[in-house]
Write a structure and sequence with these properties.
The structure holds two protein chains of two kinds.
Chain A: H1 3-24, H2 28-48, H3 52-77, H4 92-113, H5 123-126, H6 131-139, H7 144-165, H8 177-186, H9 226-231
Helix pairs in contact in A: 1-2, 2-3
Chain B: H1 3-8, H2 12-44, H3 60-69, H4 81-97, E1 107-110, E2 113-116, H5 125-146, H6 150-181, H7 186-191, H8 198-201, H9 203-216, H10 228-231, H11 241-266, H12 288-309, H13 315-345, H14 350-383, H15 399-409
Helix pairs in contact in B: 2-11, 2-12, 4-5, 4-11, 5-6, 6-9, 6-13, 9-11, 9-13, 11-12, 13-14
The chains are: A mainly alpha, B mainly alpha.
Chain lengths: 254, 410
């Protein structure tokens, strides 16, 4: 038994098992892992069949990027979620069954036509200038048009997805710490540039609904959160006002 | 004669020996690098670092490893058991696999057999390393998901988004090397650097690769997947004992692997630095391993240096940097490299090549000037000082305004 067939007989049953098990897994993440495994085994087969570039690209693109994005979504759905069995789009079940039947019919007809036991033809020819070089030769000469069309299609699809998923930004401008700091100093008054005053701290009371006292003994409205003001949850500040002090008005006159 | 044909006639026992040697080297290097990192970071922070166990504290990492392995192995009740066990295994196996294509020495005499310390030389060797790295992420992502708790899940999600984005920048930075070397096999790439190392010829590619390799390995300042200030331990919060040790091992082997790849792609692999070419024949070629080792160690030191110097990036800054800076710059650079390559291959005159290079340099400088100007303008606009309103509370008059008022009064 050659190394190649040994590899095949070890990995092929595993791949088939994994692909069947993928269908019967309860958790979507388990199915995704099994699918990733099937893709990796396929890549190993490609490499064993002298198509190293295809094999590696299969891993980088499918296992590395596509399945990873899949997992990304599945993980966001949550650990314990399971698929709902209710038909959400009308008639999707019959369409699915029809498509599956048509696809399997196509596959069966193709596989039935295969002749087993024939030696492979043309592999050495195809790989004569090196596997990667041979592929590049075809991609960038005979099939360059198809290649470009497909890439244009993919870009269109990506753009479409972005447009569909795009949501309008809210009108509220995002402020950064820096801009808020600048705004505090550039505002009408720099009275609060160093931050709002804290709430009152007294011998008997210490809570966020108690206003702090200004130097002239008046309670400061700024020392209490806006929310509490709106809710009317502010403690009566009269009792904290100091008595017998000369009153000072806003202009600083006694 | 390229690397692939030299390796091809290896008997089986040499292949097995090479595999074991590479594995042993990786594990040993991990132990050494854990010790080295702690010592270097300690020195940078004006501390001593581990210096008790063994000479210079060399065996500290081994002692820690034994201790770690003997700890209780906990699987949380909410965890998905199978995946929880599988995740660290995926992480650690894939990072070892990357070493298969990296030539550790030049041509050496291995017990009477001429060979190269490289397991295999694939025609798509560098892409193979990228592929193993992309499977390695599964370890982190699945570990984060299967822990069944929030912080690890967030760590796993961050890591998957991070690695996918930085893999693109990394893959693009290879393209310059591929175009220049005309091959994707590690052996051919090293051979193509016989006159000039790629770090000189393709410096932008090198810079982008170095940045994205730090992002790819989840190391500071890009260690958002395990940001201890935000996510406790990130994806490995729930792991303990040997399973955690495997993640730990994977992280360090990964660092060595990306450093080894950087050495191969940009620093000429095991070839001697310019002017010291005569050393490559010493000890039957084995001396080339010293050069390779020194280059990898230099990269490792750089990793530690970064960790000791830079604060962690915020997640959105990190993504913006990857997608809006690294990738576009890389694509523009590939265009330049491809054009230059085409010009030289079609035998364009020196004058045309020099003219094209000059035009590119001028265009870059021009773009930078325009960018700087617009930046200065917006900054000026933002810094325009509006007249300050009179304060609403009594303040002593400033000396200048006092003088002004007196003048007005007079």
């Amino acid at each position: 038994m050659s190394g190649e067939s040994a590899l095949f007989w070890v990995l092929a049953p595993l791949a088939v098992l994994a692909s069947v098990a993928m269908l019967f897994m309860k958790k979507a993440v388990h199915s995704a892992i099994l699918l990733a495994w099937v893709m990796i085994t396929l890549a190993i087969f490609y490499i064993a069949l002298d198509a190293p570039f295809l094999g590696i690209v299969q891993i980088v693109v499918y296992t590395g990027a596509v399945m990873m994005l899949f997992l990304f979504i599945l993980m966001l759905v949550g650990v314990d979620s399971s698929d709902s069995l209710v038909e959400k789009i009308k008639g999707i079940r019959s369409v699915a069954i029809f498509t599956a039947l048509a696809f399997s019919l196509t596959l069966i007809t193709f596989i039935a036509r295969a002749e087993l036991g024939r030696p492979s033809v043309g592999l050495d020819e195809a790989n004569s200038g090196g596997n990667v070089e041979g592929l590049a030769q075809y991609l960038f000469s005979d099939y360059v048009w198809a290649f470009e069309v497909i890439s244009a299609l993919l870009i269109t699809a990506a753009l479409g997805a972005m447009v569909l998923a795009h949501s309008e930004k809210s009108d509220v401008a995002r402020t950064s710490q820096k801009s808020r700091s600048i705004a505090r100093f550039r505002g009408k008054s720099i009275a609060t540039a160093a931050g709002l005053p804290g709430s009152g701290v007294y011998a008997r009371n210490n809570a966020i609904d108690l206003p702090a006292l200004l130097p002239d003994g008046k309670p400061s409205d700024l020392s209490i959160a806006e929310v509490l003001h709106r809710r009317g949850d502010v403690a009566e500040s009269k009792s904290y006002e100091l008595e017998g002090l000369p009153k000072i008005d806003d202009q600083g006159n006694k | 004669m390229n690397n692939a044909s030299i390796i091809l006639d290896d008997p089986t026992w040499i292949i097995v020996a090479k595999g074991v040697l590479v594995f042993a080297l990786c594990v040993l290097l991990t132990l050494l690098s854990v010790w080295g990192e702690r010592r270097i970071v300690a020195r940078m922070q004006m501390r001593m670092g581990p210096n008790r166990v063994g000479p210079f504290g060399l065996i500290q990492a081994l002692a820690d490893g034994v201790k770690l392995a003997l700890k209780e192995d906990i699987i949380p009740a909410a965890a998905d058991r199978a995946v929880f066990v599988l995740a660290p295994i995926i992480s650690v196996t894939t990072c070892f696999m990357a070493f298969a294509v990296i030539p550790l020495t030049g041509e050496v005499n291995f017990f009477g057999e001429q060979t190269i310390m490289q397991l295999t030389d694939l025609p798509v060797g560098v892409l193979y390393v990228l592929a193993t790295a992309s499977i390695g992420v599964y370890g982190i992502v699945l570990g984060g998901w299967s822990s069944g708790s929030t912080y690890p899940l967030l760590g796993g999600l961050r890591s998957s988004a991070q690695v996918i984005s930085y893999e693109i920048a990394m893959g693009l930075s290879f393209v310059g090397v591929f175009i220049y070397a005309g091959s994707m096999s590690t052996g051919d790439i090293i051979a193509s650097q016989s006159t000039w190392w790629n770090v000189v010829v393709l410096f932008p590619s090198f810079a982008i690769y170095v940045i994205s390799m730090v992002g790819e390995t989840n190391r500071a300042p890009f260690d958002l997947a395990e940001a201890e200030g935000e996510l406790v331990g990130g994806f490995h919060t729930e792991y303990s004992s040997l399973k955690f040790a495997l993640f730990f091992l994977a992280e360090y082997v990964n660092i060595i692997a990306v450093s080894a790849l950087a050495t191969t792609l940009f620093l000429g692999g095991p070839s001697a630095p310019p002017g010291l070419g005569f050393t490559s024949a010493w000890f039957g070629g084995w001396f080339s391993f010293i050069w390779f080792f020194l280059k990898v160690l230099a990269f490792f030191f750089f990793f530690v240096w970064l960790r000791g110097t830079l604060p962690r990036l915020r997640y959105d800054q990190f993504m913006k940097f990857g997608w809006k800076v690294l990738i576009p710059v890389n694509i523009a650079w590939i265009l330049v490299v491809a054009t230059l390559r085409l010009l030289t291959q079609q035998g364009a005159s020196q004058f045309v090549i020099a003219g094209f290079t000059g035009a590119v340099v001028l265009a870059v400088l021009g773009a930078m000037t325009i960018y700087d100007r617009s930046k200065i303008k917006t900054e000026e606009r933002a810094n325009q000082v509006e007249p300050m309103p009179e304060p609403s509370f009594p303040v002593p008059a400033l000396p200048t305004s006092l003088a002004l008022k007196e003048k007005e009064g007079n």
